[in-house]
Design a protein that fits this description.
The complex is a heterodimer of chains A (100) and B (482). By secondary structure, chain A is mostly helical. Chain A has a single domain (4-87), classed as Helix Hairpins (Orthogonal Bundle), CATH 1.10.287.3510. Chain A has helices at 4-24, 28-53, 57-87. Chain B has 482 residues and is an all-alpha fold. Chain B has a domain at 264-482. In chain B, 76% of the residues lie in helices and 1% in strands. Chain B contains 21 helices and two strands. Chain B has helices at residues 3-8, 10-28, 32-53, 69-93, 102-119, 123-141, 147-178, 185-191, 199-217, 226-232, 235-260, 266-287, 293-314, 317-344, 354-357, 360-363, 365-379, 385-399, 403-428, 447-465, 468-478, and strands at 59-61, 65-67. Chain B has a two-stranded antiparallel ribbon. In chain B, a hairpin with a 3-residue loop joins strand 1 (59-61) and strand 2 (65-67). Classes of the chains: A mainly alpha (100), B mainly alpha (482). Chain A binds chain B through residues 8, 11, 15, 18-19, 22, 28, 31-32, 35, 38-39, 41-42, 45-46, 48-49, 53, 55, 57-58, 60-61, 64-65, 68, 71-72, 75-76, 79-80, 82-83, 86-87, 92, 95, 97-100, and chain B through 123-124, 127-128, 131, 134-135, 138-139, 142, 145, 147-148, 150-155, 157-158, 161-162, 164-166, 168-169, 171-173, 175-176, 179, 181, 227-228, 231-232, 289-292, 295.
Chain lengths: 100, 482
């Protein structure tokens, strides 16, 4: 049996890798993957503690999160296609036409 | 789930049903006015059901939602604001090319998400309501598929996704220590800690949740998306982001963080004080530097959410009334300001440059007059709704002896007055000789948009001169929710 704290540590590490990915990478699709990593880090913690507490609510919540993440990616990829059409690039540094 | 439960959530069912009807309606017959009528019918039906449902209140419907007078009041506010935005969108979209009907579908879904948010009592309904709102907003912001709109949409998507991830991880941390996902149980679990509950993890989780909430409310330091999204989104969508999305989140924050009794957690309390002061200062100071009207209103909304936090931190019985009343006045004023931008915009761009407003009074006195009223209300000048709202915020702050926050509120409002007045002065200035009128200004206001704005101006003065009826309503519905 793997101790509970290992799950929490793994999920914290995954979460911070995701944060770093969003902050440092400039490719919109990689940023998206990093966001997914952060969502799934939280999912891992939820599932591990749902097992620990013997409660189903944590596990069911993960299904909600997965559905939401899928919807978010569907909209996000559509927006990336749209931005590629206007800028011919998916580098987020190119998104700089809005300013005061 | 009993029949009474289903009855209690009928407004939500109607909103969800209306979005399905609009979706199928578009598939069968694509017509702009028909879609508008279906949308408005759904919103009116949901609104009219609220008083009927309040007979059943308060009622816990499954562990996820609570229908009480507090959530009914804010649902009513959200649905009414959504009605106004739908009407404004009609006059905005009438000038646009391309498919216009799906816009209303996303408006309905975003409204549904906001109503779920104010009624949520559980992490699951909180997260789902928030995401239904956010995902609809990504689409709405990028709806025009012009360069600016898509850029604003991508920026909002990445940052909102990041904040949702923070929120979710915060929920996971709280769940890992307390073993509950019910929002109302968190304070009781905290005050009777069972063995092994680490306060550090819980406070860390709550801090991450505050990051997620602070992003949605555009509080400093989570405000960086605000000016760009306000500028890039179509004017009616900006109105939605500024009012409904923030109001729903603030209602949830008020309900649960008042129960937690924030004064018991000095670190959390201090964090909110710093956020409030920073929002008031940065919102008003950076507002001074803006020339584009939509960016100016973005900084204005940052400072207004900072003002709201003053009453939120006061957390007396008066605080809930002050926050609810201020939200009503903020909704009326902000919708009015963006409504006026909407009716002056044309198919190429939104009217937001200083040239669009220079000398406006001599060409369109009614529009300039209404805009002046809205800006003065945002600044909090007497006889307008904004003044009465700010008066209640200050009273709530003084009642809890939050002197520092109240002083900052008064000082920064004074700074803010300057940039609102600058726009007013520009509207009354005379046109330089030989200059042509900007193309955005040649449009005569669409009838529906003008009607919505007229109603908002009347509401503005009504709330500013005789606010007693609405205050009574708020006192009876909002107090005693905890």
């Amino acid at each position: 049996m793997v101790p509970l704290s290992y799950y929490l540590m793994l999920s914290a590490v995954m979460f911070f890798l995701g944060v770093l990915g969003v902050m440092l990478r400039r490719n919109a699709i990689i940023i998206f993957m990093s966001l997914e990593l952060m969502f799934n880090a939280a999912n891992l913690a939820f599932v591990a503690f749902a097992l620990y507490y013997h409660s189903l609510s944590g596990q069911i919540f993960v299904f909600f999160v997965m559905t939401v993440a899928a919807a978010e990616v569907a909209v996000g990829l559509a927006l990336i296609v749209a931005i590629f059409r206007t800028k011919h690039s998916i580098n987020v540094d190119q998104l700089s036409s809005l300013k005061g | 789930m009993t029949a009474a439960d289903v009855y209690a959530i009928l407004p939500l069912i109607v909103l969800g049903g209306a979005s399905v009807v609009v979706l199928l309606g578009i598939a069968v017959h694509r017509s702009h006015s028909l879609t508008l009528i279906l949308t408005l019918t759904g919103l009116v039906a949901a609104f009219l059901l609220l008083p009927l449902v309040s007979i059943e209140a308060p009622r816990q419907v499954t562990p996820l939602l609570v229908i009480d007078s507090y959530s009914i009041f804010f649902s009513g506010l959200i649905i009414a604001a959504s009605f106004i935005i739908t009407v404004l969108s009609y006059s905005y979209l009438s000038q646009q090319r391309g498919h216009r009907e799906e816009f209303y579908l996303f408006l309905l879904l975003a409204t549904l998400g906001s109503v779920v948010l104010v009624a949520s009592t559980h992490f699951a309904s909180f997260f789902l309501g928030l995401e239904v709102l956010s995902v609809s907003l990504y689409t709405l912001i990028a709806y025009s598929r012009k360069e600016y709109g898509i850029e604003a949409g991508v920026k909002y998507l990445i940052l909102a996704g990041l904040s949702s991830a923070f929120l979710l991880f915060g929920m996971a941390l709280v769940y890992s220590e307390l073993g509950t996902m019910k929002l109302a149980q968190i304070p009781t679990s905290l005050s009777n800690p069972s063995s092994g509950v680490s306060q550090v993890f819980v406070l860390g989780g709550l801090a991450l949740i505050v990051v997620g909430i602070g992003f949605k409310l555009a509080l400093v330091p989570f405000h960086l998306w605000t000016p760009d999204v306000y500028q890039g989104a179509p004017a009616p969508v900006t109105a939605f982001v500024a009012t409904i999305s923030k109001g729903a989140m603030f209602a949830l924050l008020l309900r649960y963080f008042t129960v937690v009794n924030i004064h018991n957690y000095p670190s959390l309390y201090l964090a909110f004080v710093v956020i409030a002061i920073a929002s008031m200062f940065i919102g008003n100071l950076l507002g001074l530097l803006q020339t584009k009207l939509k960016r100016l209103l973005a900084y204005s909304s940052i400072s207004h959410l900072g003002y709201l936090l003053v009453a939120f931190l006061a957390s007396g019985p008066l605080a809930a009334v002050a926050v609810a009343f201020y939200l009503v006045t903020y909704f009326v004023t902000t919708l009015g300001a963006f409504g006026l931008i909407t009716i002056m915009s044309n198919s190429d761009r939104d009217a937001e440059d200083p040239e669009d407003y220079r000398g406006l009074f001599w060409r369109k006195p009614w529009i300039a007059g209404s805009f002046t009223a809205m800006l003065l209300s945002l600044a909090g000048v007497p006889l307008t709704a904004g003044f009465v709202g700010k008066f209640y915020l200050v009273t709530a702050g003084i009642g809890s002896a939050l002197w520092l926050l109240v002083i900052v509120l008064v000082v920064t409002s004074g700074i803010g007055l300057y940039y609102y007045l600058r726009v007013v002065v520009a509207m009354f200035a005379s046109l330089p000789k030989g200059s042509t009128i900007a193309p955005a200004m040649r449009i005569s206001p669409h009838f529906t948009g003008a009607l919505a704005v007229t109603i908002l101006v009347l509401l503005l003065f009504w709330l500013g001169i005789y606010p007693t009826p609405i205050l009574r309503l708020i006192e009876s519905m909002v107090t005693g929710f905890s």
